[in-house]
Each structure stands twice: as C-alpha cells, then as structure tokens.
Amino acid sequence: MSIPSNHHEKDKRDLNKFGYAQELLRSMGGFSNFAISFSIISILTGAVSLYGHGLTYGGAGMMGFGWPIVALFVMFVAAVMAELASAIPTAGALYHWAAILKNKRWGWYTAWINLIGQIGIVAGIDYSVALFADPLIASVFGYESNNTTVLICFTIILLTHGILNHIGIRIVSRLNDFSAWYHIAVVAVLVLSLAFFTKGNLNPVDYLFKVGETFSDKPYMFAFLIGLLQAQWTFTGYDASAHTIEETINPRVRAPWGIFTSVAYSFVIGFVMLAFVTLSIKDAGAAAGSSNAFIYVISQALGGTFGSVILWLVTAAMWFCGLASITSFSRMMYAFSRDKGMPMSHQWAQISKKYRTPAKAIWLAIILSFLLAFIDYIIKMVNPDATYTTIAFLTAVSVVGLYVAYGIPIYLKLRAKAEGRFQDKHLGPWNLGKYSTFISVVALLWIIFICIVMVIPPNQMAGYAVAGMLILLIIMDLAYYKNHFPGPQAALNTSMEEIVRREKELEKTSSV
Predict the structure, then answer these.
(1) Which end of the chain has the least Cβ crowding within 10 Å, N or C?
(2) Cα(391)–Cα(121) distance, rounded to whole angstroms?
C-alpha cells in the first residue's frame, strides 16, 4: 500500500523543526515500529535464557508473582517514555530528550549510559542465542559444547546480524514484522504442546504461585529480589521504537504506541508461556541445578526429539531478537555521532549511499558487543572458579545501563514541569494527560529500586563494570567533551518554547 506524500511531508517538517534533515529512509509502518520493540523484548529470549536464574532464586513463585510485578511497573516506565517520544520525535531519543529538557551535558551522559546498556543487551541477547544453539548443534555434529565453542557460535551470530542490518532497513523491517508473528506462533506451539503432550500431568495451578522455595543459599525474600533479573532483563530495549522514529511514518503516534503496546503484549503472552512451562516441571531442584533449566524442563516434559524441535524454534526467535537489537543500537550511535558525541563521530554518522543505513555504526555495534563478551571470556579463563555466570553479568549490565538512561529524561521532565519549562502545549498527540506526573514518579521510583537490586551480590560484577564505565565517562567528559561537545542541534539554543515557535513557523510556510 502506498503512503500519501502529505504524510511524508508532515513527518519531514516535524523532524526539521528539531534541526535535522530527513536522511534515513522513512518506510516503517505502525506494526513495524511495534515489531522491533516486541522483538527486542522477546519473551522467548529474556524469560527463557534466564529461566534458570529466576527458578534458582525465586522458585516457581518467581513466574507467578515476579513476572507480573516487574511487568506492571515497567508499563509505567514505558508510558512515560512513550509520552516523551511523542513530544520529541528524533532518533536520538533518550539523550535528545535529556538535552532539550535540561542541557547538552545531561544529554551526553544519557547517551553514553544508554550506549553501555545497548552493548550489554546486544551481547546478552546474542550470547543467549549461542547458549541454546551451540548445545543443539553439538548434539548433531558430536562435539562437546564449552565456553570456547559458545563464543565462536556467538561471533557467527553477531556477524549474520551485522550483514543483514548493513544490507537494508527494508529487509530488516520485514524480518522484524515476521519476527513478531513468529514469536506469537512459537509461544502458541509451546503452550499447546505443554498443555496436551506433557509426559504425566501438569502441576496444579497453585504451584505457579508457590513462594518460600529457593535453590540458592540466600534467604527467600532476598533471593526473590535477585531473581527479578529474569523479568526485568526481558523488559528492556523497547526504546527501539523511539530510536527508529525517523524511519517511521506518522511517528508521533505510531512510535509511542509501539513502545507501550510492545510491553503490554509481552506481559500477557509471556505470563501465559511461563505459566505452562512452570506447571510442566517434574523436579524443580534438578532443573535449577542443570546447565540450562529451560532446556531441561522442556526435554523432561516433551521428550528428546519433540523437545529438540521446540528448542530449535525458540532459538530462532532469539536470533530475530538479536537482529532487531542491532538495528536499535546502531540508530542510537548514528544519532549520537551525528551530534559529534563520540570519538571519530564523522565515521559513525555516515550513511551508506547504496543501502541508506548507518553501516559503520552497525559494525561498531557488532565489535563493541563482541568485546564485552570476549573480556568476560578472558576473565573466566584466568579465573575459572568465578561464581557469576556470563549471561547474568551481561544482562545485569544492560538492565542498569538502560534503566538509568531511561530514568534521566523522566527525572528531567518532572523537574522541567515543576519549573514551568515543560507544559501541556509541549506534549505530542500521545500523552498521559493529568496522570502524567503520578505515572512519572512511580516509574522513577521503580528504576531507582531495580537498579540497586541488579548490582547486589551475586551480580556485583555488573555493578563494578558499570561503575568502571561511569568513571571512564567522567574522565572523557572533563578531558574533552565538556568544552567540545556541541550537543544535539535542537538543544544548542533551543527550549521547548523555541520548538513550538518553529512548529508554528513551519506550518505557516507549508500552508503558503
């Protein structure tokens, strides 16, 4: 279906008033924008790859209570981010919001903290794919899966994502559309298989809400908090709808809905999936003690061959999740480099003339994600007795990095609103109305709480990694960027008032 040219013209004018030309190909519809966030959230990645983590610390009750608790509060965060995306529809997203609501230095820190989280989420997702794919491939070719073979598999998966993202947004957009339906179809197959073909009977429904059982050495309530990483990491990356906003048609409405509905649908569909997986458990202690709890549970419930087919379907869904995450990460770096916020910015801001994609930013995203996992691999080689798991480390880094970046513009919006610098007239067509402040406060409190929980032992390595990166950022800022970072074009000499004024001028020009 062709898109009326007046839609493109209006979207172009909306972007122009923020000081940017339309460079990226604007071809994504509302479903495609939703699909990229839904694919990155990927209940078949986060909830599945960290299933053993949640089960070990919180038992079955982690699925019955932990998932809904996290999802509820994440919906508050998603709602505020959707409101900001509608008000400030640029690919820079979080850091543009921070810069416009306060100043360019707040924007610079937001961008780099978001970048840290993006490195963690891409590495975590593709490492999850490798953790599932490598044992399945090993069973076919007869080799032993170990840390080295997983790292090789991880590298190959990253390369496939880099190549496809380089080739073009149309291909990736179609694959993301397919991915959304594929996720739903695989969950349906998994749920129906467990409902009708589980060996033996399913556990009673009240087993899903069983509390007090932990397979860790922590007191239950403390262990339950640690186990929340499973759900919290799943609900990350939905800012992708904002990062691809300059490629979306009618972005001030479609991108906010993409952010919010991707979380809402993942909440419901994920809960149904986790419920049936958990109710099919035969021996929770054995599952928690296995190398991969999800593979163990599915194999026990459905048998070897049928279980392997289901696991291959799940692994493919994870692969789609990684593909979408590279798209989001590269757009964030492209937007930041366009504003000269990174070393060698002129390189990462280049658009491929043939494919109209930020090709160099895509490959930088691949390299940085590989390095995070490779550094962890070296640490494990030097210290094989390390108690933390690679996947917990990568995912905790991404949760803290992303949610701190989510929280900064939310906090700045509350401050700007209290000072009268952000008013109702500055809102976009998608907004929370009179409930905006309340929802923003709840979202901010949850972010503070969850970021503290994510770095307490046994995830202290993630805290050390994030702290080290923050120290490096401070050094970079004071040594160079404090005096040399020009900031987002819209934030140079622009307030929300100025943006409203520009909008009126552009409307007058277009009417003439």
Answers:
(1) N
(2) 10
Q: Tell me the mean pLDDT in the region 455-471.
A: 85
Spatial contact of 380 and 127, defined as CB atoms under 8 Å apart: no
* Count of C-beta atoms within a 10 Å radius of residue 278: 28
**Separation between Cα atoms, residue 144 and residue 90, nearest integer Å:** 47
The gap between the terminal CA atoms of the chain, to the nearest Å, is 29
Sign of CA dihedral 111, 438, 269, 46: positive
User: In this predicted model, which residue has the larger pLDDT, 458 or 285?
Assistant: 285
CA 501 and chain centroid, separation = 34
DSSP notation for 137-165: HHHHHTPPP-HHHHHHHHHHHHHHHHHHH
Question: Whole-angstrom Cα distance, residue 423 to residue 417?
Answer: 6
pLDDT at position 510: 56
Lowest mean pLDDT among 66-80, 176-190, 480-494: 480-494
Q: Write out the two tokens for 268.
A: 């419901």
Q: How many alpha carbons fall within 13 Å on the CB side of residue 25?
A: 16
pLDDT in tens, 255-312: 999 999 999 999 999 999 999 999 999 999 999 999 889 989 999 999 878 888 988 9
Angle made by CA atoms 98, 102, 103, in degrees to the nearest 5? 90
Quote the Cα angle for 66-49-244, to 5°.
Answer: 90
Q: Is residue 485 within 8 Å of 104, Cβ to Cβ?
A: yes
With 0-12 / 13-18 / 19 or more C-beta atoms within 10 angstroms meaning exposed / middle / buried, residue 478 is: exposed
**Cβ atoms of 194 and 302 closer than 8 Å:** yes
| 71-83 exposure pattern, b = at least 16 Cβ within 10 A, e = fewer | bebbbbbbbbbbb
10 Å Cβ neighbour count for 115? Answer: 23
CA distance 345 to 120: 21
Cα(320)–Cα(95) distance, integer angstroms: 26
Which pair of structure tokens corresponds to residue 444?
Answer: 């901010």
- Nearest residue to 111 via CA among 337, 274, 394, 366: 337
Quote the tokens at residue 419: 């000072």
Question: What sign does the CA torsion over 500, 405, 467, 383 have?
Answer: negative
Q: Per residue in 155-177, pLDDT tens?
A: 999 999 999 999 877 788 788 88
3-state secondary structure of 248: strand
- Smallest CA-to-CA distance from 179 within 299, 262, 264 is with 262
Neighbours of 512 (CB within 10 A): 5
- For residue 458, is the peptide bond before it cis, meaning its omega torsion is within 30 degrees of 0? yes
**Token couple for 442:** 């709840």
Burial class (CB in 10 A: 0-12, 13-18, 19+), 63: buried
